[in-house]
Specification:
Blueprint: H1 3-9, H2 14-23, H3 37-46, H4 52-103, H5 106-158, H6 179-183, H7 190-198, H8 242-266, H9 277-284, H10 295-301, H11 305-312, E1 314-317, E2 321-322, H12 323-330, H13 334-343, E3 353-354, H14 356-365, E4 369-372, E5 403-404, E6 408-413, H15 419-427, E7 444-450, E8 453-459, H16 467-475, E9 479-485, H17 492-503, E10 507-513, H18 522-531, E11 545-547, H19 556-570, E12 573-574, E13 581-590, E14 594-603, E15 606-607, E16 611-614, E17 617-625, E18 631-632, E19 634-635, E20 640-646, E21 655-658, H20 662-682, H21 690-701, E22 703-711, H22 714-725, E23 732-741, H23 746-755, E24 758-762, H24 770-777, E25 781-784, H25 787-801, E26 806-822, E27 826-839, E28 843-848, E29 851-863, E30 866-868, E31 870-872, E32 876-881, E33 892-900
Parallel strand pairs: 1-4, 6-8, 6-9, 9-10, 10-11, 22-23, 22-24, 24-25
Antiparallel strand pairs: 2-3, 5-12, 7-8, 13-14, 13-21, 14-20, 15-19, 16-17, 16-21, 17-18, 17-20, 26-27, 26-33, 27-31, 27-32, 28-29, 28-33, 29-30, 29-32
């Protein structure tokens, strides 16, 4: 059996069982490694299931490790950016200094630099002084708040309410005692009331002979009957319990009476709690006859609410806040708050709002206790408009929402190693037969049912020009299958595919194709795989290697079984019950249908009629089509389909997501398009150093080939642009004026005619009438079906722009022996050819004492009395030069020609 099967039997994870197996001395390298019966028994006997606490601790450690790794990466990137910024500033200063020296203003530049440094130092000193003053004010405010807090606490302790006795019965409301009893100094009035609370039994009946006296109601206690007949209002969470309110009311009344009695003995200081208390309490009663709050509460409410919060160091928040409001609540100046935000990397003005989490962090930094206010009751709530961006992002999935999903498998490898042929055998199709040049030039996605289990396959090109497509396919996949031809071995694109798969951190499998050929050598492939760090399972490694043949189908079923096995081990999951998001695999402009995009859904379910947003394009899905042409109503996670209905052709590899509102999708698309436009304008960088200036001047002097590019799909545009950019030349450059998908149009011809550019089409044809218009304007239009033919043509056109270069080649020498003056012909130099040949079509120069006296054409050559075209070594001849007769004996006539040099970029 295999390790993951034993893990299922023991009801644990494969990772945990692998760790315990290695601890028990059983050597296992991967989850799919085979285990014999003896090792399985050893693992069963020694297996100890870990507690949930240990698992939680391990997850916590993993999370901390990932967070620490992320912090290191961020710190490294920040350090690198700082270093680049310093280099940039140094280059700018150096260029300014050189310019000042060139213009003769070096002294003024140094003076300005010193003044700027002085101003900067003064500014820093001023900011430091302001910061210290602000800190001193903060300390002073904290001390003031502390004193106010102590005063409030003292007043609360002075007028504290009596403790409510445990399990106290509901107090019985009765009329107060007569006024005479109130003035008596024998016992306080609170005692009878307390006794009544402690003895809840009914009072003894009065004697029959005596008629009970009519009690006198004390208005200081309450106004019963009338208020009691009113029905109670609805309960409010902020209201007190009625029993608590009644207890507090009687406790306050009794406390006031005691305070009045004791205060009269203390003199004038007790007036606030003495005989004037009744009048004061009557004034503080509300319209329902309820008494006002206790004196401690009055003292607290006497302060301003904001000042009370500052004194108590309480920061109340219920959502995003403006910077000026945060400064007011924290009792700080706005510039201090802005400086604190800048330290956190947030640049906000005084009237800008910051998130609730950021405001909470600021409050904690200044020593405040944060209280997050909840929503008030409906009577106090206002109609708050919902944030437009609330539904833009798709919410994160919880573990309970995740369900199993199909695997995404990518075929990677070198060109002509059988990737598409193997895919054709699996799909029972013949795609490879219809491909131009017999090679795949697009990335394609297919969803196939294998034993009632769906698998999504991505077929990638193997040509060197399609490196970006292979990288994109590796990033979208769960399992990368490296296809290697058994008769060819590992090639450069194979190594590149392995590198892409490792960078994407996906599971790697190997399929050795063309094993049916007589020249197949799988053992050599095993050795090469071990060199690349992919040791096969048969050699004790952890890489699954399958021998297959796309022509006969041998081993294909085993390959599919191993793919499903790997998918089961990976436990792939996604949430299908939400709005969909995913990636654009390929995109194109289809004549008659408009923009078409082949998409792969990452999560959620994509339905016909959904509004999708993809970069600067959006639209309502009009149709979903699978690879066989069948129309679909919806697709789930890890499924591929072609989408129709977008407003334009998106970039290959772009992310998409479903937006609930079409109007909001249009706004976001316009924002993205504006941002992209600003980025492209900002990409036109200015010269930042002297080296950049000279480089710009050199590039301006280069010859330039201008191209308008049209391709069938967006991935091909990307690959061609990248391949053309890799053509390096110091003499001529290639500039792509415009690129896009779709047929060659009249607008392309007009653009090319204005800029003297050539039009190149890949996998597309010109529209009707475009070729005749191009001939009229003198525009060259070329179309190709194979990418390497296109690249060869571009290189040749770049070579054609270069001027012809020649090299001088000396072909012979002749020494002047005697001078002859010929009538009506001129002066002839009787010479002996010492080496090489003297040709009449070549050029000659006269050397005297190794110095050039004359250089020009040869007029004629005479051998005896005959005119000849050339004379060879050791032959005598008479040489007449055009426009030269001043020969001397001993001169050397050197004969040379010019040869055309081959053009190189």
């Amino acid at each position: 059996m295999r390790l993951f099967e034993l893990a299922k039997e023991l009801n644990t994870s494969s990772k945990e069982l692998l760790a315990q197996a290695n601890g028990l001395g059983v050597e296992i390298t991967s989850y799919v490694s085979k285990i014999d019966d003896e090792d399985a028994a050893t693992i069963r006997n020694g297996f100890k299931k870990r507690s949930s606490v240990d698992l939680a601790d391990e997850e916590k450690k993993n999370a901390e490790r990932q967070a620490m790794k992320k912090q290191k990466i961020v710190a490294s990137q920040k350090k690198q950016l700082d270093a680049e910024g310093e280099k940039l500033n140094e280059a700018i200063e150096r260029s300014k200094r050189i310019k000042a020296e060139r213009d003769g203003t070096a002294a003024q530049y140094e003076a300005a630099k010193a003044a700027a440094a002085k101003a900067k130092a003064e500014k820093e000193a001023k900011e430091k002084a302001e910061r210290e003053a602000a800190e001193a004010e903060a300390v002073k405010a904290a001390e003031t708040a502390k004193r106010v807090q102590e005063q409030i606490a003292a007043q609360r302790n002075k007028h504290a309410l009596p403790e409510r006795p445990a399990q106290a019965p509901r107090p019985e409301v009765k009329p107060a005692a007569p006024a005479k009893a109130e003035q008596s100094a024998a016992k306080p009035a609170a005692k009878p009331e307390q006794e009544k609370k402690q003895k809840p039994a009914a009072p003894a009946p009065a004697p029959a002979a005596e008629k009970p006296a009519q009690p006198k109601f004390n208005k200081d206690v309450d106004k019963p009957n009338k208020d009691k007949k009113k029905p109670p209002r609805g309960f409010h969470p902020d209201d007190e319990d009625e029993e608590d309110a009644l207890f507090r009311k009687h406790a306050r009344n009794n406390g006031m009476k005691q305070g009045g009695k004791n205060d009269r003995n203390r003199g004038n200081e007790s007036n606030s709690f003495g005989k004037n208390d009744r009048n004061q309490r009557d004034k503080n009663k509300d319209k329902h006859g309820k008494p006002a709050p206790a004196p401690a509460a009055e003292a607290t409410e006497a302060l301003d609410p904001a000042a009370a919060d500052i004194a108590a160091k309480i920061f109340r928040i219920h959502g995003p806040m403006l910077v000026k409001d945060i400064a007011t609540k924290l009792d700080q100046r706005p510039n201090i708050i802005i400086a604190s935000l800048m330290k956190k990397g947030i640049f906000a003005s005084i009237n800008q709002a910051v998130d609730k989490e950021v405001a909470i962090e600021l409050a904690k930094e200044f020593g405040f206790t944060v209280e997050v206010e909840k929503a008030r009751r409906s009577l106090e709530n206002h109609n708050v408009q919902k944030d437009k961006a609330a539904d833009d992002d798709i919410p994160e999935d919880t573990i309970e929402q995740l369900k199993p999903r199909p695997p995404v498998v990518t075929f990677l490898g070198h060109v002509d190693h059988g990737k598409t042929s193997l895919m054709d055998f699996i799909r029972k199709a013949k795609v490879a037969a219809g491909e131009a040049g017999g090679i795949t030039q697009h990335i394609n996605a297919y969803t196939i049912e294998i034993n009632d289990e769906p698998i999504t396959f991505l077929d990638t090109p193997g040509h060197a020009a399609f490196s970006a497509m292979r990288a994109r396919g590796a990033n979208l996949t769960d399992i990368a299958v490296i296809i290697i031809a058994a008769d060819d071995g590992i090639m450069p694109q194979t190594k590149e595919a392995i590198k892409h798969a490792r960078n994407s951190n996906v599971t790697i499998m190997v399929a050795i194709n063309k094993c049916d050929l007589p020249t197949a050598n799988p053992d050599l492939i095993y050795q090469q795989l071990a060199t690349e760090g992919l040791t096969p399972e048969d050699w004790g490694g952890d890489t699954i290697v399958c021998k297959v043949s796309a022509r006969t189908g041998e081993g294909v079923d085993h390959l599919l079984e191993m793919i499903l096995l790997q998918a089961e081990v990976l436990e792939l999951r996604a949430n299908p019950d939400r709005r969909a998001n995913g990636t654009v695999v390929e995109a194109q402009m289809q004549p008659g249908s408009g923009p078409m995009a082949s998409v792969l859904v990452t999560g959620g379910t994509l339905n016909v009629g959904d509004i999708i947003l993809c970069g600067e394009f959006y639209g309502k899905i009009r149709a979903l089509t699978e690879s066989t042409g069948k129309r679909l109503k919806s697709i789930g996670p890890s499924r591929a389909a072609t989408v129709m209905g977008l407003s334009g052709v998106p970039e290959a590899g772009a992310e998409f997501r479903v937006i609930p509102n079409e109007k909001r999708a249009k706004e976001l698309a316009e924002q993205y398009a504006e941002q992209k436009k600003l980025e492209s304008l900002g990409a036109v960088s200015q010269a930042r150093s002297i080296d950049d200036i000279f480089k710009k001047i050199t590039d301006a002097e280069k010859l330039q080939l201008t191209i308008i590019l049209r391709a069938d799909v967006q991935g091909s545009v990307e690959a061609i642009e990248a391949s053309i950019a890799e053509i390096k030349s110091e003499k001529v450059s290639c500039n792509i004026l415009h690129s896009g998908t779709g047929a060659i149009t009249s607008n392309d011809v007009q653009s090319a005619g204005n800029g003297t550019a050539i039009i190149i089409g890949f996998g597309v044809s010109p529209e009707a009438g475009v070729l005749s218009e191009a001939r009229h304007h003198g525009v060259l239009v070329k179309t190709f079906r194979i990418i390497y033919e296109l690249l060869d043509y571009v290189k040749q056109e770049m070579l054609n722009l270069l001027p012809v270069e020649h090299k001088e080649v000396v072909i012979g020498h002749a020494q002047v022996k005697q001078i002859f003056e010929l009538n009506r012909i001129g002066v002839a130099a009787g010479s002996l050819v010492t080496d090489g040949i003297i040709n009449v079509t070549a050029k000659a120069r006269v050397l005297r004492n190794k110095k050039v006296i004359h250089s020009g054409d040869i007029k004629t050559i005479r051998h005896f009395k005959d005119e000849v075209k050339e004379v060879r070594q050791a032959m005598e001849c008479g040489i007449l030069l055009a426009n030269y007769e001043e020969f001397r004996e001993g001169d050397v006539i050197e004969c040379f020609t010019y040869e055309e040099l081959p053009k190189v970029l």
